[in-house]
Design brief:
globular, mainly alpha, about 240 residues, 9 helices
Length: about 240
Amino acid sequence: MLPLLIAFFVTALLYASVGFGGGSTYNALLALSGVDYRILPMIALACNIVVVAGSTVRFARAGVTPWRQAGLLTAIAAPAALLGGLTPISETAFLTLLGAALLLTAATMLVPVRDTDGEADKRGAWAWLFAAPLGYLAGLVGIGGGIFLAPLLHLMRWNSARAIAATASLFILVNSLFGLAGQILKGGEGRFVAALDVGLPLLVAVAIGGQIGSLLALKYLPQRWIRWGTAALTAWVGARLLFGL
């Protein structure tokens, strides 16, 4: 359990530093550790909630969350996340989707983050089209979806960098809550208790790692270094999961 605790701590530290939850990597670490795949999304989504809840509140207090736009994206995605959580999936399909999501996550980490100074491009009006598919994926395999949403919004010049970060944080939090509810309803009491047995120490690890990651991002480490480190970790775990490296 100690190596897994350390891995979750480091993952939360890195992802919190760039404003995300880390659900896909938590899932992969658990899968590589031999944990029953049917309880992985519950643990990963709960860890997501712990990591991003604080950043969501901080963005809201700072007044940078674009509530109308972010609320629309989140409202579209949340029912889909619940549906994804309720959807049965085989172990092979789950692990394949998860591995592919990890490699895609690593690629999204390399997308340049450019500030628009609040001047949004008209293309950003179509961002809602991506909300439901990302929400469904979030509930199905236990990720928040914000790590895919944010690069899309940057490429569309949807809003300022801080507004996009705030939106991604809210998106992850709400999708994780709805996805977790779906997973619990699907799995029943037995799987929920099993997830608690494995997940409680890990929740403590990600809570500590997330707080330290936020501090490092604010005061010490350049964002580019953090993003590269996170991309490398994610790609390595995804490759191991898909190809047995």
